[in-house]
Amino acid sequence: MENNSKVTEFILLGLTNVPELQVPLFLVFTLIYFISVVGNLGIIILILMDFRLHTPMYFFLSNLSLVDFCYSTTITPKVMAGFLKGDKVISYNACAAQMFFFVALATVENFLLASMAYDRYAAVCKPLHYTTTMTTGVCAHLAIGSYIFGFLNASVHIRDTFSLSFCMSNLVHHFFCDVPAVMALSCSDKYIGELILIFVTSFNIFFALLVILISYLFIFVTILKMHSAEGYQKALSTCASHLTTVSIFYGTVMFMYLQPSSSHSMDTDKIASVFYTMDPHAEPPGL
């Protein structure tokens, strides 16, 4: 990426500068990352190997696990290096690359969660038409569309952020190159950039949330009409872990990005970011 500013590298301030906490935090985040890698790759391998799991629900779950693995890998190793070796320097291009993949993969997860909600709607509310509604082609189009929107969205944010000039501080008040934290360092006028960030993020979040909320509205209405205790329990169990993931993901994302940088508390943002960058929250329903 072309660098139009005087800054050639950034320094990630990380979660804390307290020396006594570096090793304990390294151990904690190493454990979290290990669980995330083993869990997500284990889910993907299990789904690929077990023919009984070749269904739309597990197709989306395998994609969600892949995305979780990739974007935690985009962030966590650098954080661990900062704790262990004090290596908090990241080059201009590496910062842009980290931001690009993080934004892209987070956006992919956003639309995958919406696709999973629609899949649950079809399974619970239209069980007799499920196989004809959620065909292989439909699932493939929903997944491919999620990836396309994700990488297009990341391209918009990267161009918007790194077209700014960075001529003052290069200290990023975060443990990775997040859009608000990097944008806050610019000596250019950030007003248009912040408007684009809020508008695009709002559209992505609220479009996906609308699909999720409408899907679950119909699901809950259908569940309330069920007379079978077994069917009631099964419907709830297939939706519970998805709702948990949705709550964690959208709660932290809306807190982080739907406000101007002047309203951001970077210390609070860093804590909130941990929940969706390193938390292994893709729990497999029914496994």
What topology does this entry show?
Blueprint: E1 9-12, H1 19-49, H2 56-85, E2 89-91, H3 92-125, H4 130-133, H5 136-162, E3 171-172, H6 179-183, H7 191-224, H8 229-257, H9 266-277
Parallel strand pairs: 1-3
Antiparallel strand pairs: 1-2
Helix pairs in contact: 1-2, 2-3, 3-5, 3-7, 3-8, 5-7, 7-8, 8-9
List keywords for this structure.
disordered C terminus; 9 helices; globular; three-stranded mixed β-sheet; 287 residues; 3% strand; mainly alpha
Number of strands: 3
* Neighbour order of strands in the largest sheet: 2-1-3
One letter per element, helices H and strands E, the order comes to EHHEHHHEHHHH
C-alpha termini separation: 43 Å
| Biggest beta-sheet profile | 3 strands, mixed
Mean pLDDT: 83
Task: Output the number of helix runs.
Answer: 9
Quick structural summary:
This protein is mainly alpha-helical. It has helices spanning 19-49, 56-85, 92-125, 130-133, 136-162, 179-183, 191-224, 229-257, 266-277, and strands at residues 9-12, 89-91, 171-172. A three-stranded mixed sheet has the order 2-1-3.
